[in-house]
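for the recovery benchmark. tokens below, seq after
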């Protein structure tokens, strides 16, 4: 294993995952939805804790792996609004959150297409928006996220490196192009302070100024 790969493996395994998250990963695997990698999950938890977040929007619930990390980091009264188009994924996520010991009122699960649901959420009402659903829709999610975040709120985008494709100019498929466009918009936005975190498959983090 080269140094880079060894460092990456070490960083991803640095904090062991508990049985609730590992079980949710198995379910996600069966459902065919890919959860955040361990390093990205842990980074989400730390960021949510640093924000003392009480309100978050998650776009792409899956089986609830990232939802669990978010809620673990958020204030004890914190509520995550999490959107997914697949009812089966929401059923699985509900079970994950219950197994993790969260009261049902801590998660508002809205089943539907993100671009139909997001316009119904309150402007400036959220401490965190986490984007992890359909890659080709990332540019549109970003527009909503910037509207939904309060000033000082945190935007987090998963798969910012998209398995090495974003950094490779030869990759021009729709998903890669959409992620690249989203990253560029964030980087060039005058009121965002941005950092590319290399945890997991890349987490772009930005504070709304
Ligand atoms: C990568 S998975 C999310 C994984 C989750 N964040 C985690 O870490 O456990 C992407 C999810 O987005 C959902 N999805 C795909 N297209 C969507 C859309 N247009 N609107 C809402 N959800 C969508 C899929 O059903 C899937 O559960």
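predicted aa per position
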């Amino acid at each position: 294993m080269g140094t880079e790969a060894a460092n990456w493996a070490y960083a991803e395994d640095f904090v062991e995952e508990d049985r609730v998250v590992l079980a949710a990963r198995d379910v996600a695997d069966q459902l065919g939805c890919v959860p955040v990698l361990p390093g990205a999950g842990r980074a989400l938890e730390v960021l949510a804790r640093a924000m003392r977040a009480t309100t978050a929007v998650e776009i792409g619930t899956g089986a609830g792996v990232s939802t669990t990390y978010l809620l673990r980091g958020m204030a004890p009264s914190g509520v995550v609004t999490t959107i997914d188009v697949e009812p089966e994924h929401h059923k699985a996520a509900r079970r994950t959150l219950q197994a993790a010991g969260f009261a049902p009122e801590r998660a508002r699960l809205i089943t539907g297409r993100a671009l139909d649901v997001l316009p119904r959420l309150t402007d400036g009402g959220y401490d965190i928006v986490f984007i992890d659903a359909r890659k080709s829709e990332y540019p549109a999610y970003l527009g909503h996220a910037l509207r939904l975040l309060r000033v000082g709120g945190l935007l987090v985008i998963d798969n910012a490196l998209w398995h090495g494709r974003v950094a490779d100019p030869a990759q021009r498929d729709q998903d890669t192009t959409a992620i690249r466009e989203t990253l560029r918009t964030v980087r060039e936005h005058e009121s965002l302070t941005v950092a590319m975190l290399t945890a997991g498959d890349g987490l772009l983090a930005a504070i709304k100024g």
